[in-house]
Amino acid sequence: MKTKYYAIIDIGSNTMRLVVYVRDKSGRIKERENVKVVARLRNYLDTEGVLNENGIKTLIKTLQSFQEVTRFYELETTTCVATATVRHAKNQQDIVDIVEQKTDFRIKVLSDYEEAYLGYLAVTNSTPFRDGITIDIGGGSTELTYFENKELRFYHSFPFGALSLKRQFVAGEKPTEEELRQIHAYVCEQLRTLEWLENKQLPVIAIGGSARNVVQMHQEEVGYPLAGLHQYKMTKQDIENIEEEIAPLSFAELQKVDGLSKDRADIILPAMQVFRCLLDYVGTSDFVLSRKGLRDGLLFEVLHRREEMTLFTDVLERSFDELAKDFEVDVNKAADRQETALQLAKLVEKQGLITLTDHDIFLVRYAAYVYNIGAYIDTESGNQHSFYLLANRTIDGLLHKDRIILALLASFKNKSFYNRNAEVFQTWFQEEELSHYRLLGAVIKLANSLHATKRNIVSAIDLRQEEEELILTVTCKEDWRAESYQVEKQKKHLEKQLRRTIQLAFQEDATSYIS
Predict the structure, then answer these.
(1) What is the layout of strands, in order, in the sheet containing 107-109?
(2) Cβ density class 269-295: b for 16+ within 10 Å, e for less
(3) pLDDT exceeds 70 at position 513
C-alpha cells in the first residue's frame, strides 16, 4: 500500500482545526499535521442568529491559512465540516457560498445527528468499550450518545456548549461560585429530560478539548508516568478534586495551571459542570477520555466509503495487526508461541499453582504474540525496547493499566528486570498482582524458549508433579537439541516463581522421522 494523505477540517464554535492524516504501508493512520486556531465563531453570532461580517472574515482568513498547508500535500480527499455555530446561523447558505468562492473548500454543515454519530463512530472504533455513553462538549453544543453492543441506541444534541454556557451565565472572565451553581443546576435539569441516560451505570467516554484539558490537568497533578491521553481513565472524585483546586484561582492564575490550555481557562469550569452532572445522572464514577473524536469519525467514514477500512471490527485485533506490520513480527511464529504460552499457563493452573481469570488468558494471549518485539530495534536489548515501546505506544482497545501489564509480560527477562520496570507503577498494583503477573511473564518466556529455532517442532507439552518437583514433558517432531538447551537455560525463571524444581523430559513424536 502506498502512503496516502487525507485532510479533515473541523469548523467548531470555539476552535477551528485542520488535521492531515497519513496512512502508511502498514495501514496505520497517524496525524501528520494538526493546526488549531481559536476562532470562537460562536461569539460572532448576533442576537438575530446571524454570523456577522467579522465572524465571516475570521472564518475565511482561517480557512485561507489552512489551504496553505493542504496545497503542500497530494491529498486523496479533503473534507471540511461545520458544527453548531454554522448550523444555527440564519445566513448558513451565504456562509457556505462565500467559503466556496474564496477558498479551496466546500463546507458540509453537519446535522446534530451526524455530529453525535461521528463521535460515537470514533469511540467504538478506537476503544475497548462495547457499551457506553459518549459526550462531546463543543463551544456551542453538547452531543450525547448511548451505545449498546457497539450499536447506537439513542442520541441527543443540546444547544449549549462550554462557550455558550459561559456567555449565558458568566459576567466576568471566569465564573463565580454562584454562577457555577447556576450552570450546574441548569445542566442537570437539561440532562434529566433524557430518560434513556438515567442510572445506566456505564462508563462515560468523553471527546473534545474540554475533556482533554481535564485529563491533562489530572496527569500533571499525579505526575503520570506514561505518555498518551487516549483511553485515560479517571473517576468522578478526580474531577471534583480538580475543580476544588482550580475554582478559587484568579483568571490570571488559572491561565498558568499546568495541563490547562490558556485559551480554555475561561470555559473549563462550565465544561466540568456538564461532566459532573452527567456522571451523577448516569450513576457511574468511570470517566474515560477518547482522543479520537469527530474528525477521526469523519476519517473512518471516508476510508469506509473508499473501501479502505472496515468499521466495527475487533479494535484490539486491528491494533496488534498494525504492531505486527510496524515491527515486522512473523505472525505465524508469533501464533505458535502464543498457543504454547496459553497451553503452559493452563497446565500450571491444572497443577494448582496459579488461578487464571479470563483477563489473565487475554493478557497472556496478546503478550505472547508480541513477546520481545523490541528485538526489531536491537536484539541485544530487545526486552528493554519491548517494554518502552509497548508502555508508551497508544494501543487502541487497551486501557493504560492493561498496556503496562502487557509491556511487563512481553518484555519479561528476569525478576530484577521486571521489578525495575514495575517500580514506577507500584501504586497501580497490589504486591500480589505484581507477583501474579511476574509468574505469567516467566511462563511466556519459557514458551518462547520452546520455539528457539522458530521451526514449530513442539507437538505437545505436559506438566505433572512428583512430590515437590515438576516434570515438563515436551514431545517434538524434529531434533530438539537447540530447544532443549534454551529451555534448560531459561526454566530457572519459572522455577523461582513456582518455588519448584522443573525437570525436563524431551521425547520423540510417534509420527516423526528423527534418526
Answers:
(1) 29-37, 16-23, 4-11, 77-82, 107-109
(2) bbbbbbbbbbbebbebbbbbbbbbbbb
(3) no
- Tell me the C-alpha distance between 273 and 147, whole Å: 23
With beta carbons less than 8 A apart as the criterion, state whether 10 and 295 touch. yes
CA dihedral 364, 366, 367, 371 (to 10 degrees): 130
Please, are residues 484 and 506 in contact by the beta-carbon 8 Å criterion? Answer: yes
Q: Angle 382-392/415-423 helices, nearest 10 degrees? A: 30
User: What pLDDT does residue 162 have?
Assistant: 96
1 — pLDDT class (breaks 50, 70, 90): low
Phi, psi values for residue 193, rounded to 5°: -75, -10
Q: Which 3 state secondary structure label does DSSP give 386?
A: helix
At residue 514, the pLDDT reads: 64
Q: Which helix (H) or strand (E) holds 288?
A: strand 286-289
Contacts 24+ apart (CB under 8 A), 183-186: 183/270, 183/273, 184/273, 184/276, 184/277
What does the alpha-carbon distance between residue 211 and residue 269 come to, in Å, rounded to a whole number?
Answer: 11
Neighbours of 131 (CB within 10 A): 15
User: What does 234-260 look like in DSSP terms, one character per residue?
Assistant: EEHHHHHHHHHHHTTS-HHHHTT-TTS
What is the pLDDT averaged over residues 397-417?
A: 97
pLDDT above 70 covers what percent of the chain?
Answer: 99
Is residue 511 a contact partner of residue 477, using CB atoms and an 8 Å limit? yes
State how far the alpha carbon of 130 is from the alpha carbons of 78, 147, 176, 460, in Å. 30, 8, 39, 36
Please, what is the average pLDDT of the chain?
96
pLDDT at 515: 57
Distance from C-alpha of 140 to C-alpha of 164, rounded to nearest angstrom: 5
pLDDT at 510: 79
C-alpha cell at 380: 541485544
